[in-house]
Amino acid sequence: MAASSSVSRPGTTGEERQARVTARDLAAALARDWVVLLAVVFLVVLVAAAVLAHLLMPYDPLLPNIFAGRRPPFSETRGLDGGVQLHLLGTDALGRDMLTRLVYGARASLSVGVVAVAVSAVIGTTLGLFAGFLGGRVDTVVMRTVDAFQAVPSLLVALFVLFIIGGGLVNMVVIFALVRWVVYARLARGITLSYRESSYVEAARSIGATDLRIIFRHILPNMFSPLLVLATLEVALLILAEAGLSFLGFGLKPPEPSWGLMIARGREYLREAWWMITFPGLAVFLTTLSLNLFANWLRTITDPVQRWRWLI
Amino acid sequence: MVDLNPAAECGERPSSSEPPGSAAATVTPPTDVALAVSDLRVAFESPHGLVRAVNGVSFSIRRGETVGILGESGSGKSVSVSAVMGLLDRPPAHITGDIRFRGVDLLRAPARETRRIRGNRISMVFQDPVTALNPSLTVGYQIGELFRVHRPGTSRRYALREAVELMDRVGIPSARERVHGYPHELSGGMSQRIMIAMAIALKPDILIADEPTTALDVTVQAQIMALLAELRRETGMALILITHDVGVVSECTERVMVMYAGRIVESGPTGAILARPAHPYTAGLMSSMPRAEMKNRRLVVIEGAPPVMTAIPPGCAFHPRCGRRRPLCTGGGGPGLRGVAEERASACHFAAEMVAGG
Amino acid sequence: MIGHGLGGYFVRRLLGSAIMLLLVMSAVFFADRQIGDPARMVLGVAATEEDVRELRERMGLEDPLWVQYRRFVLGMVQGDLGDTFRYGISKPFAHGGMPESRKTLPIAAERLPATFVLGGVTIVFAILVALPLGIYAAMRPRTAGDRTVNVLSLAGVSIVEYWFALILILVFAVQLDWLPTSGYGTPAHVILPALALSLRPIGRITQIARSSMLDELAKPHITAARGRGVPITRIASIHALKNAAIPIVTTIGDETVNVVTGVIIIETVFGWPGIGALTVDALAIRDVPLIEATIFLLVLIVLGINLVIDLAYMALNPRVRLR
Predict the structure, then answer these.
(1) Which subunits have 3 or more CB–CB pairs within 8 Å of chain A?
(2) Which residue, of B145, C93, C235, C280, is most buried by count of CB atoms within 10 Å of its CB?
(3) Residue A4: inside a domain, yes or no?
(4) CATH number at residue A187
């Protein structure tokens, strides 16, 4: 009797299953990790609140009410329109609702972080990709520039440049993008180098794929998850940097409701009004912590070596 | 008697005359058993369910004997000895059964106690010596550490002197200088000699060699096998040789256990088994080996691939690939390991037929 | 034993740092010329044109730009970055006379010991906390202890340092009155600022220690060592840590650099008389020569740290060392 080739081979499809992780696997892994789940929920709520701030928040973030200044959390005041206002997180020195200002502050912080990250990621990834793929002189020039940028702390550079050109939202985004592109360039170049010589890129080349096709179809997709992890970490970093620079007076300018500025203002009332400093700091903390938790989880789950352990 | 792979130099062929006993593989003559494993099962948690790597393996190792464990990669042979060595993290591994070394229950004894046995009474040589050596510690440190760990109070100088002596013994030239070198300065073969030096340092009762030559150059393989055989003769330790190479088994072992899908499918004296295998899988392994006297014949490959261990086929796990497959083979729990001749056992319904020459 | 190659590497590396310093300071020099007339800033809007011109003369601003630049570069080599006419001048400028001036570099250099004390205490404290935490977590992956360490270390990285500093002041200085709110001089003064500054390095070093130890502990040579009966504490502290040391040391270096930028804010919050607080003061009064001096020293420190880290990296890697 022939050991026929038509014999079914139980389980061999299991190997294919092993290689692919579906969205459902990810969701299941996320549901098991309640800390990260909480972080993701917080981020979703925060982004939604920031986007819809003008619809959600009943009070004006900028309009002062000097009769309602420095009220502790849960106090009620009479608004300028005569109505009663409830301040869950109290009011600031000028009588503005803390919660309202925090939500509007999320807009400033998140938009600085996200826009600067988007710009720097595009610039850095493109440069890193081409440096790694083309090699030679392009690579040398790009990587020398990266080295030079990385030799000096970016916060110091940002501080000095903002001192020269002045603060404000646009300037901050520009300067952050300008100092942070190097981290993406470095990552993109490293990944490109490791794939450039890989057998499947060789195979693609041998069947006549163009350079651009190789870059976009074969190399770029492999970069997606590490880039996403890095970008998430960078948003967190830039939110912290925004807070620091605004605190020193080189970032966003009053009366803009920025978390950093709110902490700076709260410092003056440290003894009298603890809520003025506590809540904006907590807002930054929870946001960056959530971003870091998510990035950390994303990294483990997309790392082929570690993934299986976390999918169990 | 077939003479497979004459290139392997294992010194004189070990005698295959065994003390008579029961035909079952689980036989355990009480006096000279060094290691007894019974009904060992190992499963690993994975995203796609439990991977059942070892499914009820029983065997015993007598003092001083050389036993081969033969099988393809994924057959559970390495996992079995890793369980013996306590190298599996629990979880993700789930281990049941019983592993006894001189009355010590290796699966349940406190870690402190089993640690004193590992590297000391039972030692192991790994497949890839280059990755099995710590790149940032000197060779001498790593050998000497054994004495310092298992013989508390050993001085640094004594440990280093012992290291040099051991390196001499396993044939490393200018050991006195190399003892201060780092692993990356050594070739693969030299690294494996260092691993062997560590394995014999404390004169263990059992040495487990897990594919000790697979990662090495062909020219070095025979030298390493010869070294192992020589050391075994000198020290009288038992040697468990894990391999997928029928030639190595034939040259170097007295007894062999063939594993497939986490089970022992055949066991017995090496010579007898290779002369007349009692399991189609053993026969398949043998016919896929190149041999001198069949120069003009085509090599036969075993059709198909070993099963994925999350989905082991019902019945005999080998049936999808088996040329002797009958309806009887495809269902139920599969044939157990049964005695077929003196000292021999097989897990095939047609074992008797095969031994009889059917 | 430092080989020939290492010496050559050191010289090349030193040269690179010098070029880097020159580049950065040149950028600072030209940027500083864009923010207005320094003489007018010193004298104020009420001063006459002649007075401003006279001060510009004394400040060397009447010379062509390339002459000024040459003087600036030569000054860096000689350790002279010009004079300040504003910072710490005891006799303020009275109309009709010219203000006094002081060399900027000594003013800035005076602040270094305070910064070194704060930065040193911070980093040493961070290492002492982070290494054991990271190793502990790596040896018990996925247990409750590991997850706790993981979340805590991420929290350390996520906190706004100066906000945490202010909360510390609120709790320990204002409410409990255990520690001074600000100042310098006694060990008690260093506790709060060092604590505030150390959170981020603690978090980062813990993370790296954990992940690089995890990577190391999964390697075959660790399995082999376990198979030889080497105790787990010895495996962690000698076998794994020695290989994990390179990423950890790199991170310690990065975090030391971060502490150098962190002191800019934290020194301001605690009134710590270091170079960070001086930098903020100089920026606030737009004192260009003093800004240049403080940035010069900060960049010098950062380049120095990077150099030390590179050398430590060479010393740790036997493959590099012996080549």
Answers:
(1) B, C
(2) B145
(3) no
(4) 1.10.3720.10
Output the six-digit token pair for A190. 């490293």
| Average pLDDT along chain C | 85
Q: What mean pLDDT is predicted for residues A198-206?
A: 78
Q: Count of CB contacts below 8 A, B vs C? A: 72
Contact present, B341 and B353 (Cβ < 8 Å)? no
Q: Tell me if A99 is assigned to some domain.
A: yes
The amino acid that residue B35 corresponds to is L
Parent domain of A165? 20-311
> Residue holding tokens 């508390």?
B152
Q: Which domains are present in chain C?
A: 2-104 (no CATH), 112-273 (1.10.3720.10)
Nearest Cβ partner for C231 among B149, B195, B198: B149
The pLDDT tens digits of the residues spanning B152-169 come to 888 888 888 888 888 888
In a domain, A8, yes or no: no
Tell me which residue in C24, C32, C163 faces A281 most closely, judged by beta carbons: C163
Question: Rounded CA gap, C249 and C245, in Å?
Answer: 6
Interface of B with C in 3-42 (CB under 8 A): none
Tokens of B337: 């390991």
C224 touches chain B (CB under 8 A): yes
| B341 strand-pairing partners | B344
**How big is the CA angle at A140 (ends A121 and C321), to the nearest 5 degrees?**
105
Provide the ipTM.
0.86
Do the beta carbons of residue B85 and residue B111 sit within 8 Å?
no
Judged by CB atoms closer than 8 Å, whether chains meet at A151 and C306 is answered as: yes
Chain C closest CA to A217's CA: distance in Å? 31
Burial of B78 per CB tally in 10 Å (0-12, 13-18, 19+): buried
Beta carbons of B134 and C227 less than 8 Å apart: no
Chain B environment of A11 (Cβ under 8 Å): 307-313
CA atoms within 13 A on the CB side of A224: 7
Which of A81-85, A268-272, B225-229, B308-312 is the least confident region? A81-85
Tokens 């790694």, located at residue: A132
> What would the DSSP string read from start to end of B28-72?
--SSSEEEEEEEEEEEE--TTS-EEEEEEEEEEEETT-EEEEE--
Residues of B in contact with C234 (CB under 8 A): 149
Q: B310: which chain A residues are within 8 Å (Cβ-Cβ)?
A: 11, 14
Interface of B with C in 108-167 (CB under 8 A): 115-120, 123-124, 126, 128, 131-137, 145-146, 149-150
Tokens encoding B250: 């034939």
Our count of domains for chain A comes to 1
Beta bridge partners of B59: B37
Shortest Cα distance from A292 to chain C (angstroms)? 6
Residue ranges per structural domain of chain B: 126-201
Query: With an 8 Å Cβ cutoff, are A9 and B48 in contact?
Result: no
- pLDDT tens digits along A229-247: 899 999 999 999 998 898 8
CB C21 within 8 A of CB C299: yes
Q: Which residue has the higher pLDDT, C247 or A308?
A: C247
**Residues of B in Cβ contact (< 8 Å) with C215:** none
Residue C59: closest CA among C82, C80, C41: C82
Tokens 């290989």, residue located: C243
Per residue in A219-229, pLDDT (tens digit) is 888 888 889 98
- Residue A295 placed within a domain: yes
Residues C150, A278: C-beta atoms closer than 8 Å? no
To the nearest whole Å, the CA of C291 is away from the closest chain A CA by: 9
CB–CB contact C318 B128 (8 Å) = no
Mutate to test the interface with B, among C221, C316, C319 (most CBs of B within 10 A): C221
For residue A46, give the nearest of A271, A223, A282 by alpha carbon.
A282
Bridge partners, residue B61, by sequence = B35
For the cut 50, the answer to whether the pLDDT of residue B17 exceeds it is no
